[in-house]
Design brief:
- Two copies of one chain form a homodimer.
- By secondary structure, chain A is of the alpha/beta class.
- Chain A folds into three domains: 44 residues, lambda repressor-like DNA-binding domains (434 Repressor (Amino-terminal Domain), Orthogonal Bundle), CATH 1.10.260; 129 residues, Rossmann fold, CATH 3.40.50; 133 residues, 3-Layer(aba) Sandwich (Rossmann fold).
- The first copy, chain A, contains twelve helices and twelve strands.
- In chain A, the strands form two sheets. Chain A has a six-stranded parallel beta sheet, sandwiched between helices. In chain A, strands 7-6-8-9-10-12 form a six-stranded mixed beta sheet, sandwiched between helices.
- The longest helix of chain A is centred in the first third of the chain and has 16 residues.
- The first copy, chain A, starts with a helix and ends in an 11-residue tail after the last strand.
- The first copy, chain A, binds a DNA duplex through helix 2 and helix 4.
- Chains A, B: InterPro entries: HTH_LacI, LacI/GalR-like_sensor, Lambda_DNA-bd_dom_sf, Peripla_BP_I.
- Chains A, B: GO terms for molecular function: DNA-binding transcription factor activity; transcription cis-regulatory region binding.
- Chains A, B: This is Transcriptional regulator.
DNA sequence: AATTCCTCTCAAAGCGCTTTGGATATCCAC
DNA sequence: GTGGATATCCAAAGCGCTTTGAGAGGAATT
């Protein structure tokens, strides 16, 4: 059924060496010969045996994941979406996953074990915190890694892919300010996560440039679930001086926030404006909200796919990729933002 | 650093064959010799090289996952929890995952590709529907599999692990009936999923035994998210004849339902009783609800771990496990259930 | 004492790939 | 036309394990 290298070489009247080299892009093979080989691969459907490659090269062709699981830890919808991106890309290159569930306080040991096992060539990291200890640790273990997000403080020379959270929420705030809003709330992710800090910073910076200060009372931090969006917004609305506009760190939070607004009988886009960050979750599209949401958009799945690409590229030795990427989130204006009331 | 089989054999003054056999439990090796080998393994920390084993045995030592991704598909919190269980167990046995994201209408092709790739020894299946076409398909592909849940209709001879959903909701209903409730609502999962159907059946059966009929108006189906629990409960409460008790198919749904009840100013456990199915999600404990929830409990993570064990056991050829398991969910009475009002 | 039968062990042959260390042929300049 | 590059290709040696087929030794049988 499936041919192997030996048979393929025989068919071509070449040695295994040459065929192998032709396939792996080595220079010492005639261009014409290479074409013949490639053609034969197409015809026979030859697929190299991964187990044999692993053995011969010593590479694992797989990437390690440490899945945060514990009470209160965001085993959330966002993780699944990101994983889908990672998987989508990995499967193309026939890479496997080694998934290690681990409680946060056990993560260090988990990474150590993972690195020692030789089962993975590289690992992926997320949920960055300030001075995240995992970065120096992985460096010390000298196992390749890419982080999703960025730490704040600590070493700066490590590979990451992040979106420019500060910029995103700066842009969003700027829009609101231009619309005449002066009291702007923020329903943010957990306060110890780097992206939350940066989003808050974006808000602060824009306000300051406008000569305004941040009202800490209008900043809420929580796990990014619908429920908390609702509660936070409810609290905001109960204030004597509620914000006229609110930023949400996720469409999931916005979902709850919108509910609270509706319940209060207010109209989104005129009584109060909303901008949410949109991770492009397939099941929660901002354009399908009762009032389509203005968002800062950046696909989480695309980020997963990109990180997989980089991880795999690094392992295969073709790391022409930039080590650090900062994606800019797109500000998409829809109907949930309008002029500040009474202006 | 790490020793290999050859070195280990040398240390012991045995042949590789004997050492290998000792480790893999073959009978033709002296008990004493085996002990010596095991001791040496402990001392040296020998771990067989998986790549070499893969190559020699032709086994992949990995299991395939088809991750359902698409608009509206439950890339939900429950999936992550189940995955954690799978991973927890797999990592112990040094098994890898091949995760294939796939839209539902593309699943067949995905499975086919997965089976043909030789990258996995077995696959796992969930989100069962009535007459689920994937079961005959996987049988035809003759790739080992275990399903989480059970189909309804279609072939019956396939390996599964399910909880007795009918029984669980039968038990729950029974309790409510004994407490004097006659109008019982159900906030269920998606109507096309087998577990939803069975839970509804459990409710129906208990009602009928009590001489009551099911009021279809009191049954809602939806994706299992907080939001929908809220809406469904709200609808129930707006009726002229609201139910005095409601079953929820998930604590996530119950979360929303409870909110709706609180909002209506009703008291849980006296004005209205609630029983939810508890998948034992670490972030959503029924005992931590404002009024601790009565639940039917069965750990999703444990199910994941068990399925991994069976899958792996099957692959390693020690399948003394029962092919079909039906776990009984535990009915745990807490404060959210009380006598029917006015009784 | 010769034969058979276990029990325990081993040497060696793969599994399918990569990679080292040549070979062979071609080409150029001198 | 000879020495030395240069361009192509190959045979064979691993990678670390499992497994076949067989041998050595001792106990049991005749």
């Amino acid at each position: 059924m499936a041919v192997n290298l030996k048979q393929l070489a025989e068919i071509l009247g070449l040695s295994q060496t040459t065929v192998s080299r032709a396939l792996n892009g080595y220079p010492e093979v005639n261009a014409e010969t290479r074409q013949r080989v490639l053609q034969a691969v197409r015809e026979t459907g030859y697929r190299p045996n991964r187990a044999a490659q692993r053995l011969a090269t010593g590479k694992a062709y797989s990437i390690g994941l440490v899945m945060p699981i514990a009470p209160g830890i965001d085993s959330d919808i966002h993780f699944g979406e990101f994983l889908a991106g990672l998987a989508e890309e990995s499967v193309k290159h026939d890479f496997h996953f080694v998934i290690n569930p681990s409680a946060p306080d056990d993560e260090e040991a988990t990474f150590r074990r993972l690195a020692a096992s030789g089962n993975v060539d590289a690992v992926f990291l997320a949920y960055m915190r300030a001075n995240d200890p995992r970065i120096p640790m992985l460096k010390a273990l000298s196992i390749p890694f890419v982080v999703h997000g960025r730490s704040i403080g600590g070493p700066r020379d490590y590979p990451f892919l992040d979106i420019d959270n500060t910029q995103a929420f700066y842009d969003a705030t700027k829009l609101l300010l231009q619309l005449g809003h002066h009291r702007i709330g923020l329903i943010n992710g957990p306060d110890y996560l780097a992206f939350s800090m940066r989003r808050k910073k974006g808000l602060t910076r824009a306000l300051e440039e406008w000569g305004l200060g941040l009202d800490e009372e209008l900043v809420h931090h929580s796990v990014m679930a619908d429920e908390y969006g609702y509660r936070s917004m409810q609290h905001f609305l109960e204030r004597p001086d509620p914000p006229t506009a609110v930023l949400c760190s996720s469409t999931v939070l916005a979902l709850g926030a919108v509910r609270a607004i509706n319940r209060a009988g207010l109209v989104i886009g005129s009584d109060i404006s909303i901008i949410a960050h949109d991770d492009v979750l397939p099941m929660l599209k901002p354009e399908n909200f009762s009032v389509p949401l203005t968002t800062t958009r950046s696909s989480l799945r695309a980020a997963g796919a990109r990180i997989a690409t980089r991880l795999i590229g690094g392992i295969l030795g073709r790391d022409t990729y930039p080590e650090q990427e900062l994606w800019r989130a797109e500000l998409i204006v829809r109907a949930s933002t309008g002029p500040a009331p009474g202006r």
